[in-house]
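Is ribulose-5-phosphate placement plausible here? Inputs below.
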Amino acid sequence: MFSQDQLKQQAAQAALDYVLPQLQPDSVLGVGTGSTVDRFIDLLAAHSGDFAAAVSSSERSTQRLQAAGIRVLDLNEVASLALYVDGADEVDHELNMVKGGGGALTREKIVASVADRFVCIVDDSKLVRQLGRFPLPVEVIPLAREAVARQIRSLGGQPRLREGFTTDNGNQILDVSGLTYDDPAEFEAVLNNIPGIVCCGLFAISGAHVALVAGQDGVSRLELQD
Ligand code: 5RP
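Reply from A.M.:
I modeled the complex. Tokens:
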């Protein structure tokens, strides 16, 4: 029986196997944030000479990438990314995701938006029939926190401030429980329209292109047909 940590390691290895054949000496790779991605970065270290650089979605990943000998570029220096690799807190079979458990959701959504393909790497505890069990992280401008919280309550959610946490962008996170998403993309659009919300952790308007899901029987690949 593999532990969750071992499954994360297997998902990270699967990501490396998926990504390496697609990397050219001038490629720039988008890299997300979290404990699964940490393992991916550690594996990537041995291949730092096979591609040009990375763009990172957090200060945490930037530090780890640089420690691994990988050059990190600012997103403003990069016009396109072929691939973006990141974890998720939940992913469904349509490859909609909830992200932001690590608080890096805004930069994650921005960097992912520049990439041609989002490669989601998870252990199978994250694969769900319907999103909603994991409280939805919502990054808010601090002065708008209570105004946003009222709007979220009116949508049926119970927001809770992530205590003692400031995002890399200097904002706060509300973790919202009690939400159900019949149409995750529609709900993401509703949240995107609330003044004071910088970004919500629903990645459904633009989800993953492929998910590498590590389970007891190996790593399975979920991919939507174009
Ligand atoms: C960070 C994220 C992470 O991808 C998500 O929280 C999964 O993390 P982990 O790999 O540690 O389980 O969205 O903002």
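Short version: The mean pLDDT is 97.
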